[in-house]
Amino acid sequence: MDILGLIKDKLTDSVIEKVSNFLGEHPENIGSALNGAVPIVLGGIMRNASNDEETGKVMDVLKDGGHTGEILDDLPNLLGNFDKTQLLITIGSNIFNHFAGSKGNSIVEKLSILTGIRKTSASSLVGLAAPLVLGALGKVVNKEGLGVSGLSRLLVDQRESVFGALPPAIANQLNFKSSDPAVKPQTDEKIKETKKEPTDNQGILSWIPWVLVGLVFLAGLAYFWKYRKTVKPAEPTAEVGVLPKQDSTFSDNGTPSVSSPADTVSGFSDTESKPFGQETNTTKEDPINGEKVEDSKPLDKKNEELGKDEKKITFDNIFANQPIEEQLKNTKAWISLNTNFKNNSAEISSKGDLDAVVKYLKTNRKTKITIAGGSQSSKGTLGEDRAYAIREVLLERGISESQISIQSSSVKDVDSKVVLKVK
After folding, report:
1. What predicted TM-score, i.e. pTM, was given to this entire model?
2. Which residue has the higher pLDDT, 127 or 310?
3. Which fold has domain 316-422?
């Protein structure tokens, strides 16, 4: 039995129009939102029915609430009455919040973003969908005389159709995956485990590998002892890379003369570029000939000499000023996106750098990114919700779902609303 199909048949154009007039939203948006709200509620019920005990609680809700499916047949008349419609939504909202738990608010906000309706309207729609789903389940249970185990199997049968109807962002909120069953019906049969006692032959055979390992070790030890050689250290030579002993002599006028080593020695020559962090920017006086020579100091030493109010010279400081296209190519660090959102909301007000991100990911189809909230989105689940909002935009622009992953915790050391990292 297809529960989603049973409910969808009852969501006629007349029903959608009545809901649209009640909420003051466009009928097309309401139709799309209802098609999303129904699998959301059913998915929440399936997630909670993880065993026979929890499924029994769902069965109690069906019986105690009088969910026999009559609501589906009388839906047009109910929606024609304002007070009955409001009461239906109020009761349904309590049911949805029970099954969705702490994720209810973020799920409603994502449904609002995806369908273009107000958040209050999205909340009313999941409230309306809850009694419809329970009514459909109750109708099948009564018609087929199902018990708890039968209800468990019925919910398992709905998994693939529900997963296919859920938007990816909301499926992640519900921890709903196609490969892992949502419910695991239990039976009264107990599985008996038998342990096979090892035979005497098996006990003997189990020692053979260890004996072989011991023999190999002893053979290696004997070989090393017999053929080991004492390596005599090589005499130092005046080859390239070794500084010869300086020959101090006196010139005709009595002043000391020091012979300098060859210009080509191990290390950096005057024309070679030194690694990042060893640039020179000061000079000092040579104690022998009085000439000015470069004073090489590592970058971290220079940073120690900077004042407290001066910004340290680091690779990240320099890199952050580059265009985002270059950052995507050249770094594995978190990249700050200039995407803007409405205050304390996951609703995008300005897409900012997303065009460049889309172009990069389409050009590099094997590249994967991780999206997270920044320090400006560290309040509650705001960072995660904003990351999912960015993900939805990328999916709509044709980016593969396999290229994108979401980090639930915000990156508090990056001053941004949303950040991403190239894997």
Report:
1. 0.46
2. 127
3. 60s Ribosomal Protein L30; Chain: A; (3.30.1330)
